[in-house]
Please model this.
Amino acid sequence: MKAQHTEAPAGVRHTLPSFRQLTIVAQDPSIEGHDGNVLRSKVVVPAEEMRSGPWGYRTQVVDYDATRGKSYRKATLSDVDDPLAEVENREALLRDPTLHAVNCYGLVMRTLSRFERALGRHVCWGFYGHHLNVVPHAFAEANAYYSRDDHALLFGYFTPKSDPAGRVFTCLSHDIVVHETTHAVLDGLRPRLMAPSSPDQAAFHEGFADVVALLSVFSLPGVVETVLRHALGGPAQTLEPTLVTREKLKESGLLGLAEEFGRELRGIRGDALRRSVKLEPKPDYYQATTGPWVEPHRRGEILVAAVLNTFVDAWLHAVGRVADVRRVPRATIAAEGARVADVLLTMVMRAIDYTPPVHLNFRDFLSALLTIDTELWPDDEGSKYRLRHYLKANFSGFGIEPVTSLATHGGCWRHPSQDLRYERNRYEQMRAEPDEVFRFIWENRKALRLNEQAYSRVLSVRPVVRVGTDGFVLREVVVEHLETLKVAAKDLSTVHHPDKKGHIEKPEGMPDGLEIKLHGGGTLIFNDFGLLKYHISNGVGEPERQSRRLEHLWRRGHRFGRPERSNFDELHRARAQGAVDNPGEVW
Amino acid sequence: MAAPREVRVRSYQVGFGDCFLLSFIYKTVERHVLIDFGSTGKPRHPAELDGSLKSHLQRVADHIATTCDGKLDAVVATHRHKDHISGFDTKSGPGATIRSLNPDVVIQPWTEHPDAAIDAEMAPGITTDDLAFAKGLQQLDAIAESAVALAATLRRRPALRTRYGSALIDELGFLGETNLANKSAVENLMTMGTSRRYLSYGQNSGLSLSGVRVHVLGPPTLAQFKEIRTQRTEDQEEFWMLQAVEQQTSPSPGESTLFEEYELGRHDPASVWLRQRLQRANIEQRLKIVRRLDSALNNTSVILLFEVGGHRLLFPGDAQIENWEWALKRAPDKQQNLTLLRGVTVYKCGHHGSRNATPKTLWNNFDERNTDSAAERLRVFVSTAEGKHGHEENNSEVPRETLMNSFRQQTELFTTETVDPNLDEPFVEHVLQIQNS
Model:
């Protein structure tokens, strides 16, 4: 059925709606709803004037198949069309390329706008341009990836082993589309995170994309009901809250869902949900410096497991609050799960603003999560979901502790020294102009503990507008700055950090004359009054972090001095193929 | 019978490929083991081969037949790549000549086991899982076929050749050709001689040579591979299957549409740039996949170590690091392996001198390396053809220059690149005197 036409009278532009609803595939075509049809869900996306493709202001679907050299029919989407709502069955969905295009468009725009809502501003892509190309049937290969160079998300298709006559379209898998979109968004927010660094940084891109993808799926009540159906079974419309347990939710519910979805995709995706649910919490994986847990996807699973366990715990906490009620409607418990996923999703997205721009590790991310939550909800104990409590416990279970002390700072970032100079800065300009912010950095370079030998520049100045917990509008400015220092390997030991003991160590076997480029930098967060609230930094001379990074890259055969790039296509393919990584053995 | 008096190691000039004849000379008899026989490219250095590669390989086969006086004791086909087995082809190669030498045993890796039903002696310890995996590997021919077809299409169209460059197209074609199963050679090896052995790490080689001990150091079985790969073998197998099926069904551009019920759209002028990039990316992906297939098959190589008198001769086929990983780092008896390998006196360089087939752990462990060229030191044989494979700019050239430099500095180097293919005796040879005879 078509939605009611909402066209505004000519000339009254401000009455046009800003958002619209669009139906998307809730997980993938193998998951059925009660009616036996593909489980779908309505999501909210920005309303816009569109060209066929769909082609809107931030994304363009280009349905070109490079394997066959064909362009498929474009989808035309007016502001009242909702073609996936009208799909009759799975076969109808699979055989119509325009539905695939609309599904991709809807998921990409939902993810983008979800980030923008969480961050309180527009998010630019990680390349020069406004349009992200989305190619739903890019090639015949069991692979999907984000390519910065192509300004594109590329989705492959393939024939499943179980059905030689069938076809699996990765563009119809909710978590795959959101995973790849998240890579593109994160690349726009933190472009340096794709540069070669520590095992954590490479793993973070993958783990974070999986976290956003899974929480995006679980924020749909229909999917959460499916989890409950697996966990508790039966057609009952009401449930006893005490029967909803951690074990059941994880071992039957989430694993049951994992069994259903991605069955055909397991070979490509590495099955983040299944692996993370089964991952027994222990610190060994995170502490490993060699072996499988250094590989980006595997290491990323630690992050996914910690967040997913938090999701389950917070959901149970919310259900436990009504434990004295005999029976609760199943839909209520499902809706609560979807809400927890949504709150966590906002939190993880927002936390990106509170991370350093270079050499990110999981501990930084945990501190960012705790800081952002503390700012919004100072009282964790009295809160509905106790997210900070469960985050600390679950990350700690995997050996990940926040950067700052839990006892004195609650694991949150420290506020900067009060000894900063603002007198020569202009408040309005500080909200938009990199040069004005750089003036602030220059004036305060000593207080900000910057390396005076390094080349410094401001990467971005991003004004943020959010609604605070008191209901009033909150204005912040998020600034990224970068420090770069080139040194010969033999001089690494001469690079120091004003606050840290020791020096950067040259990896064994590295030639003395090799030119090494060190990167450092920080995120500055200015408050409503233009005063610095946080400076979250990894200095260029930090001995431990830089030594670890160099050692890791050197052992993996990184070619220093060459242009740095990260190939998600190769990374994904290597994950599926189980490549053994032995850089020290090659010539 | 006592130990041999001497051992002759002969490396025939076959261009880009391997062909080694090991001759064990006893007091009254000679025993001969042929290790690999194949080529993917005519010899060009130090002189261009006159005539066809086919007739050259026949000449080599005839020379082998004469040398061994009509009888081979064993044939070893280290793995299924064309540059190691095309000489066993009975239709377009000299396979019939080799077959007529009636080897007592034909040795291949366990992954080549045709079927449990065939009368072949299988290495103990190989499970049905292993066989299923091996069968899967054999089915991957579709990937190679598709690469060959795509390279041919691109070569036929000058505009595409210009756009993508001949280097990319040539590598696609070369790797496709190399990996394509040579059915005639495979069948010949499967039925040749008196018995067949399909070997894995630690098994008895089946070679019976007086005074010679033969150790099988690779390839690991699936269970051993699993331990190396820890968790992803299942995913990997699935991935390969998916690629193989897909490439069977959609081999080349312009053939079909995915959505038959729907008319095609027009190519949008606004996305010309993206379409061209995607076309290139698609070809590069096919190349990456076929490279992976190439590595996977290299890693099925049988690794043999012959121990005779004070000498140890190492023939690892094209085994790459992943195959070596078990013997060097994971096997329960790895320390014994390292001790054995420390005393290697003759090393057949793995994979024609590529960058990842002489693991540094293996190389650094060789005691017989010596920079003093007057001293008796490690002999290294490299059967290769420069400029055929890989590029210097990404360190993938074969043979790898840094490896060759180490050979030049620390070993006595024998390379087929110095052998004129048009000679009556187109090989490089070294004779080892066995001390205790």
Remarks:
- Confidence is low (pLDDT under 50) at residues 1-5, 576-580 of chain A.
- The first strand of chain A starts at residue 19 and ends at 25.
- The two ends of chain A are 64 Å apart (CA to CA).
- Chain A touches chain B through 60 residues (CB under 8 Å).
